[in-house]
Amino acid sequence: MLKRLIQVSNNLKMKHKLLISYVLVVMVPVLIVGLAVTAYFRQQALDNAIEQTINNVDKIKSQTATLLRVPTDISNILMFNKDLEKIVNTRYESVMELTRAYLAYKDFEEYKRQYREVAGIRFYSTNPTLINNLEIIPVDQQTKDSYWYQKALTSTSIGWFYIPNKEDNPVHKLSLVRKVPFPEYRTEGVLMIGINQDELNELLRQEPFETLITDEQGYIVAAKNTELVGQTLNQLDFGIDLQNQAKGTLEADFQGEPSNIVIDELNPMYSINSLKVISVFATKNIVKDANKISLIGMSFMILVLVIALLLVYIISFLTSNRLLRLSRHLNKLALGDLNVTSRIDGNDEIGQLSRQFNYMVKSINDLMTQVVETSEQNTQLEIAQKEIKLKMMASQINPHFLFNALESIRMKAHIQGEAEIANIVRLLGKLMRKSLEIGSGKTTLKAELEMVRSYLEIQKFRYGDRLAFVIDIHPEVEKISIPPLIIQPLVENAIVHGLENKEGTVRVNISIYPMDEVIQVHVRDDGAGITPERLGEVMQFICGPEEQEKSRIGLRNVHQRLTLTYGEPHGLQIKSVYGEGTEVSFTLPAGGNQHV
């Protein structure tokens, strides 16, 4: 059925759709509204009364917020009061010392004297050497278990709670409660500022209806009827649970009479909880002018119908005309006219379609241009690739000639009894052949270390007793695949820089072993080492985006290839102590997996 209705709608012209929409969306709802107009305006009269009550509640909220701003400002000052911090964190050796400290601290008394909104100030501390003087109070178990104390410890924000009577330490009024941390002493305490009950009650005394202010536990902290202060909402005869009601209005029987209840919330500055403002008024005699209001409502509905008919006609004409213009542009494009431009203005959907049509035509022209350019680029790329292949074939001639020359030198040296020279020439040829065979592929740790050993033997021949080396690799990791020329540049760096500014033998140690699901690779030397400043520059260079100094390109190249292959955690790590040596290390995934 729905599918058939959609099909019928799609077959209708736009003008007819708008007229049918007018009937369904305007006329039918207006008839329904006409039948319900009396009830509606009766409710409107009631809403006016509720609105007036809401305004009164808003006024109370504003006045209460102003009243609470004073203790809030005081608490902000005391949060950073050095005298308070010192007095509550000092470990007193005697009562006399504590008494002198109490007598010297007058801030609480001064604030109470200066501000009529403040009934008293207290500070609860965990310092066991303190004595309760009704202002600075050591925390007992009963206080620790109280709801307001536990709530205050959750945050340094302000909490507003009604504090019930306590036999040895009565409060019985709305109080600001706030945790005060002392980072220097690694301690904390709870500040309590009691609000003057007379000031709170004065805010509600002139209200026309019964008005209450409650905290989050349901305690009445202020009321027009002051006898209600200290009671809870559950003790009053509302018939519903007002404590868990959200802000808004509702109907209920209060003291046996149908009433409307307006509930709103007051969220003081920096507060972790809110206060509720509740106002109650009877609903009788509110809707006595309902008939007059109903007549006004009917006149209003007739006016709406006339205006709506005129608007439907105008919108129908304008919309149909613009759509026809867009349709003509599309027909031109379909016939191959790529220079067509739509000039339909407006920011509605039709205007957006017009602009998107122009974007589409421009994109088609751009794509055609790109196809031509791409074709030319592909042709040039094919030519360049052929040239590269020719150069690569030519470059293979020189290395083969060099290998043959090295082999001839090695055989000549061997025949003449120069075994050491023959061995070094053999190692050099092996090292060069391995380097050329690697290309851009992968190698194994075992093959990489063979190249490293050949390189070290050649350097050993060069430096003699000034160089010693040890290669230690765990047999389990020999077949792990790695990018080529990863370890050799680190060894080369250790020899070149390790021998600088150091007399005697420099030892190079290469160790590779598995640990915690990764393979640890360490290249250590006991050479000249690097100063901390220079080490910072080296690390900044090898991790940076640009190559700036040729002396560190090998390290930077290794670091970049490791991070691109395995991820950032597997990059180079360098530790060095100036005058003692340097260690360069990195890790490989145990399975040799590449970074994705």
TrEMBL record:
EC number: 2.7.13.3
Lineage: Bacteria, Bacillati, Bacillota, Bacilli, Bacillales
Entries under PANTHER family matching the protein: SENSOR HISTIDINE KINASE YPDA (PTHR34220)
MF term (GO), any: protein histidine kinase activity
Species for this entry: Paenibacillus tundrae
Protein name: Two-component system sensor histidine kinase YesM
Mode of membrane association: Multi-pass membrane protein
Domain of life the protein comes from: Bacteria
SMART domains linked: HAMP, HATPase_c
Gene3D superfamilies: 6.10.340.10, Histidine kinase-like ATPase, C-terminal domain (3.30.565.10)
Major subcellular location class: membrane
Record's keyword terms, sorted: Cell membrane, Kinase, Membrane, Phosphoprotein, Transferase, Transmembrane, Transmembrane helix
Compartmental location: Cell membrane
Domain HAMP, chain residue ranges per copy: 317-369
InterPro entries, alphabetized: Bact_2-comp_sensor_kinase, HAMP_dom, HATPase_C_sf, HATPase_dom, Sig_transdc_His_kin_internal
Transmembrane segments: 20-41, 295-318
